[in-house]
């Protein structure tokens, strides 16, 4: 607790931390509302997957570019521009769904790609900024606090989306997401300005180092690939839960169940960071594989009807492996990238995450339409199994213990 009190005493940090967390809320708010809005409009989970994949594909393509822009220019200007553009993009998607026939889905896909390109890079900017705000003695503590708060935000988003859907419908959930993204970007940019941050260019070590791609580093590439596979698997669960609750006539329940999935991630992250910090990556990935495999055998068509309580428990327990797995990836990114290119490195991590989602959502949608949610979750479990194999084959880096960032997750 003394570390938390020390963080609270750092000038401007509480405000920066608060607005950076709010800036991540739109990420967990969007999937449930967008999926339900699209399936009620078009009737196909395959189209839901294509649109969702287009949105995340745009995010993946722009991730490193936004990170590089944040490293070399005004992060405040970048936040304002992307916040406005992203909010407009989501509003246009809602308008198109309300006015076009179901056959107009290719137009929505095109707009989704452009909208994804403008996603607000709050997490990249904040993670690159923290070491400059608190210094090395409190960086680990701040990353741990960020990891815990991020899981709370991830859990809160689906619950808030479910509440909005129950009161006003899924289209309003998407519009609220747009408003949250815009306001949080403006508020975080203002907080950076008050702290005297976000306008300067970071110095680079050498011109050659600045020009060399981070993807030439083998260790960094391994983290990127494993992250992509894990996030692809996680998104198959999200879409499958939405489909299952829609099929049983309880669509608003999807937000609650997904919140349980991410709530398990929160519990797992706290448990590992408190009691088992040195658990290797492989057991963490194995736990996620087992959890998804168990969920797959409880969903249609493998099991026609499963009690909601059983599904909720399995989702929670399976979710306990998410944060520990992502934590290992986040830690390696922080260790393997030069400080002056850290935002770019986190941009590549964002690309891996959103790229995994973009590639898996269309596949999951087709599998749900043709075979049911069990097939989509089983495909996700197979992806995590591949990540586990890559983890076991990867050399374990030897990093001095005092150089490690403990307890952080994405």
From TrEMBL:
Question: What are the GO cellular component annotations?
Answer: plasma membrane
Q: Which domain of life is it from?
A: Bacteria
In alphabetical order, the GO MF annotations are: transmembrane transporter activity
User: Protein transport among the record's keywords?
Assistant: no
- Give the matching PROSITE patterns: MFS
Q: How does it sit in the membrane?
A: Multi-pass membrane protein
The residue ranges crossing the membrane are 16-39, 45-65, 77-98, 104-122, 143-165, 171-192, 220-246, 252-273, 285-302, 308-327, 348-368, 374-394
Q: Which InterPro entries match?
A: MFS, MFS_dom, MFS_trans_sf
| Pfam families recorded | MFS_1 (PF07690)
Q: Where in the cell is it found?
A: Cell membrane
Instruction: Tell me which residues make up the Major facilitator superfamily (MFS) profile domain.
Output: 12-398
* Keyword terms of this UniProt record: Membrane, Transmembrane, Transmembrane helix
Supply the name of the protein. Answer: MFS transporter
**Classification of source organism:** Bacteria, Bacillati, Actinomycetota, Actinomycetes, Micromonosporales
